[in-house]
Amino acid sequence: MSSSSRPARLPRHGRDELADSGAVPAKVVPLGNGGPEAVLNDDGFAESEALDLVGVLSTVDECAYVWDLGTDTLKWESNAASVLGLEDIDNIVSGSDFEQRVVCEHRARRTAAIAASKACPYDRGVPYRVQYRFKPGALRGTASIWIEDHGRWWPGDDGKPALARGTIRVVNESFVAEQAALHGPERDELSNHLNRTRLPHAVAAAIGRAERRRAPSAFLMIAVNNLAVVNETFGFEIGDEVLSATAATIKRKLRSGDVMGRYSSNKFGVILSNCGTGAMRIAAERFMKAVRQTPIQTSACQMTATVSIGGVTIPEQASSVREVFSRSLHALEVAKSRRFDSFASFEVDTGHQLTRQRRIEIADDIMAALDDHRMRLVLQPIISSKTRKASFYECLLRMEKPDGTIVSAGEFIPFAEQFGLLRLIDKRTMELTVAMLKKHPQLSLSVNVSSTTTTDRDWLATLQDLTDEDRSLTKRLVVEITETTVIDDIDQAVAFVDTLREMGCRVAIDDFGAGYTSFKNLKHLPVDVVKIDGAFVKNLAVDSSDKIFIKTMVELADTFGMETVAEWVADAECADILTQAGITYLQGFHFGFPLTADELAVELEAAE
Fold first, then answer.
1. Chain-centre distance of CA 243, in angstroms?
2. pLDDT at 215 exceeding the cut of 70
3. E-state strands within 360-512
4. Rounded to whole angstroms, how far apart are CA atoms 243 and 306?
5. In the 8-state DSSP scheme, what is residue 570?
6. What are φ and ψ of residue 181, in 5° steps?
7. Is the pLDDT reported for residue 430 higher than 60?
8. Regarding beta strands 563-566 and 585-586, do their DSSP bridges make them parallel or antiparallel, or are they unpaired?
9. For 436-478, what is each residue's pLDDT tens digit?
10. How far is it, in rounded angstroms, from Cα 587 to Cα 567?
């Protein structure tokens, strides 16, 4: 909770009465919403004998408190110790003492209950209600009870919480069940540690605690090695047994106050309180040794496990939950790259950070270009080998930056793939292509689509909507898919091709020959055009093996009634060799560089 050295701001009419009387100020607070006021005695409680409030509270397992956040002083009603199960109320006479008894993963909840409140009607205070687990016994023990903390706070002159009054009640197990139903279980069913949802809350609490106390903590990301092999060999049930046993081994080596949670299928996160860099390494070595030396008796057989660990210190190396997870994962990858059963502490990698920042910037540029309609198409001619005239044009994507700079697809498509943006790009490319077909009836165009689009029914629906099933448009369109797409899922590729051909489009396999299973796949796929990978063309004049491949490919395509395109044609000698081999179309800088549609239209008019 936020604290302040300033006095609490009391209800205005209460302050005026104190000023008029000239009496020594007592604390005046409202007893309830719109109810009467009470003057607090030196212990912070109401001077009234009308009701036995302590007795009433005790009957419902509740106790009351007043918290002066400026001095961090907590004053309790006389029944607090018995209600909370404490031997002595002196154990919680300050806010920090009380916080020590809140389980680590719930401290952030308690803090947020007050700190997250903003607006305040000063005469009534700001209400708060929060539930958390509380340790009534030894601080290093594990026993805890659920309590609900309900009250109001008043700000000081700086607007921050300065005085809080409330009640705490012990809640039963039915309340725990209700919370689980509302918010999901806190514990991972397999390991009985914090689950993926609750672990970030515990990390946030650890960050706040480390910053307040100026004492470092650490976070370890622990991965069980070779779990996939165990799952594949023995089944997932045995893999779960290994995972559960490994988690239990690590738990036995935790100190009091350390917290463990499930991060993902084979990863656990461990929060180490009061732990610097050196102690973090010692703890990691302790965990690795314990796991390595502990046999695991599974239902199948006896096994042993190993773990790899990446660590980060809090808040020195990571001051947010996102940084804690991302940087510990980065350190874990470093540990795995060395050997199994290894530990690595996070280290700032300037090159890695710059690369990562560059990727983020490119992703932002791509999204902005899509939103601002700054994606452009340029056209490269595909020439008939017989007439040496353009038969159709390939649409090549370009991105225009706000300053007018043009970026080629090769510079941003790999990043778009990493960030899952290819579907958006393919859709925008198709919109531009169809618009160009409508504007220039004399053009026939080909357009590339990514592997993700071959499974995207929305893309096909978009194409149908854009063309309105007008075959005067679709018959002038060639859709290119890569051979690797075919290899990944031949059945899906066949269905995609069949749908396109039913719409009137032609289909081409791009980069043919790069997948090494070309001939087998070609037999099953009803495409119209085969575009031979440029790697077999660029050295054609000097490489006899490339000539043999081209000859074989032409013969095979003829057998299936398919046309062929040779890419990367750079000179006349290469073009002549390909023509003699029977290639249908030629494409490359020898026949022209990419032009915009308007530039191409001017060029065609001039040629006429």
1. 24
2. yes
3. 375-384, 390-400, 406-408, 445-448, 477-482, 506-512
4. 11
5. -
6. -70, -35
7. yes
8. parallel
9. 999 989 899 999 998 888 888 889 999 999 999 899 999 999 9
10. 5
Longest dimension (CA), the chain: 112
Pick the closest to residue 132 from 189, 202, 72, 213 (CA basis): 202
Residue where the block lists tokens 């854009």: 466
Rounded Cα–Cα distance for residues 223 and 467 (Å): 51
Name which of 131, 129, 130, 134 is nearest 103 in CA terms.
134
pLDDT, greater one: 110 or 65: 65
CA distance linking residue 226 with residue 251, whole number of Å: 20
- Considering the entire predicted model, what is its pTM? 0.50
- Supply 289's token pair: 């040794």
Which tokens in the block code for residue 316? 């020195």
Residue 150, amino acid: H
- For residue 96, pLDDT over 90 is answered with no
Residue 253 backbone dihedrals phi, psi, to 5 degrees: -100, 0
Angle, helices 350-371/409-418, rounded to nearest 10 degrees: 100
The residues, ordered by sequence, that sit 6+ positions from 569 with a Cβ below 8 Å of its Cβ are 537, 575, 578, 586, 587, 588, 589, 590, 591
Summarize pLDDT for 280-329 with one digit per residue, the tens: 999 999 999 999 999 999 888 999 999 999 999 999 999 999 999 999 99
User: Where does residue 529 rank: exposed (0-12), middle (13-18), buried (19+ CB within 10 A)?
Assistant: buried
Query: Which residue do the tokens 């002159």 mark?
Result: 157
Hey, what are 277's tokens? 């860099």
283 close to 209: Cβ distance less than 8 angstroms: no
Residue among 186, 191, 251, 255 at smallest CA distance from 218: 255
**Which of 35-44, 202-211, 516-525 is predicted with the least confidence, judged by mean pLDDT?**
35-44
Rounded Cα–Cα distance for residues 544 and 1 (Å): 78
Structure tokens at 274: 């009061």
Radius of gyration, alpha carbons of the chain: 35
C-alpha span between 454 and 493 (Å, rounded): 7
Mean local confidence (pLDDT), 355-371: 84
Q: Running DSSP on this structure, what letter comes out for residue 23? A: P
